[in-house]
Amino acid sequence: MSNLESRISALQDELENLRRQKMIEDRAMAQLTVEQKLAVELHAATCHHNHADACGWHYEIKNGVHEWARGSSHEHWLGRANKISAFCRSKHVAVTTAVDLFKFMGENR
User: Fold this and answer.
1) pTM score of the predicted model
2) Does the structure show a pLDDT above 90 at 29?
3) Domain co-membership, 51 together with 71
């Protein structure tokens, strides 16, 4: 096998691993409550902390699964999401609209 063929094979393996990881993450996201989804998007769109040592969000995700019950960062962002959710309900706005808004903000940051 040539060097190029070896690299292609390694990259194909890496691609397959990434596809498996994305499938796991997609399944995990599908199981979240709307407030948890909102917390994910809020964090992505508005957290300005250094994620090496000032924000524990990414350390509280294991194999694509968020640790809501044990993570202080997740608890913090879920608290914010719950407040936004209550505000949305008081204004008769679907919470999913807020999720979409913050997702848009995160993608266009």
Assistant:
1) 0.77
2) no
3) yes
H or E stretch including 20?
Answer: helix 3-30
Residues 48 and 92 in one domain: yes
CA distance 77 to 27: 21
The boundaries of the domain holding residue 7 are 1-31
Partners of 62 in the beta sheet?
65
- The closest alpha carbon to 37, from 102, 90, 87, 89, belongs to 102
What does the pLDDT look like over 61-93, one tens digit per residue?
888 888 998 889 999 999 999 999 999 999 999
Q: Domain check: are 103 and 59 in the same one? A: yes
Helix H or strand E encompassing 65: strand 65-66
Residue 12, classed as helix, strand or coil, is helix
Domain match, 21 and 52 both: no
As a whole number of angstroms, the distance between CA 96 and CA 101 comes to: 9
Count of beta carbons in the 10 Å neighbourhood of residue 99:
23
C-alpha of 12 from chain center:
25
